[in-house]
Model the fold of this input.
Amino acid sequence: KNIAPFISLIGDPYLVSIKIDNKYTNYNSDQYQYWIVEGYTLSKTYPYSSPIDLGELDARYIRNSVKVIVDAYNGDVNFYVNEVNDPIIQGWQKIFPNLFKNISSMPVNLRKHLKVPTDMFNYQVKQLLKYHVTDVRTFYNGDDIWQVPKELYGKLQVPVEPYHITAQLSPNNKSEFLLLQPLSPLARPNLAGWLTARNDNDNYGELVLLRFPSETTIFGPEQIQALINQDPKI
Done:
């Protein structure tokens, strides 16, 4: 925060344990522990955009523009630009040209461990609940609003949080690491579809929306839990 106070750090850092080749001069090949911190650029003055609640700030523009790598042994910090088309980070790069590096220069072993931040994914899900609609009349009538489905946690009914899975997006694809959020029609327990964020290689950050056919009922988490609770063997 002291090095780059103009970058917002949201969410908890996560630790990876890897070996980095000697060819990367900014890293010690004898050290294996690195923290990955998610950095964001924000603005509350972006026209015609719906705000999201970040607590102290209602942001109308947010990008996960920076990946910060912190050496867990000696505290060395490297800032990598993850969103090269973000105009805000482009401005900061011009002011501090020696502070930021392009994501392509990050050690390959580190890049393999990057993942789409759950916080950013949650912001995108919240916007999608209303703005997945492309028909103008349907949008203004509010006829096709989605919600995050509920599940039982102990005795409490809570929204389903996004979770990571390893799966194939199509029969021709290899299994990949995905962040998944089920989605339901408003005030109904069945599933309307799900949104997933891809994390692997060149597909990093790509969002894929799968919509289920409206004429077929796909059970949601509450309905599946009800079936489980009705089974005397379980």
Notes: The CA atoms of residues 47 and 60 lie 8 Å apart. The radius of gyration is 21 Å. The first helix runs from residue 87 to 95. The chain has five helices and 15 strands.
